[in-house]
Design brief:
Blueprint lengths: L1 H4 L16 H14 L5 H9 L19
């Protein structure tokens, strides 16, 4: 599937390397879900954290939120 979409294996769609892309926008919500103890949220964070393409938040850290 990744090949068909022109992505690296484990790369999310939606500007995965951008600190303002869709995966970056997902990060705060997923971190909050983990902190709230929602079912399967910790496993979701583990999968999300293992993605192959991640942004560098150095100059735009607004979505660089992680679970406590």
């Amino acid at each position: 599937m990744a090949s068909a979409l022109g992505l690296k294996v484990g790369e999310m769609e939606g500007y995965a390397s951008s600190p303002t892309g869709y995966p970056s926008n997902t990060q705060p919500a997923l971190a909050a879900a983990v902190d709230a103890g929602l079912a399967a949220a910790a496993q979701g964070w583990k999968t999300f954290s293992a993605r192959s393409v991640k942004p560098v938040y150095g100059s735009e850290p607004q979505f660089a939120i992680v679970p406590r």
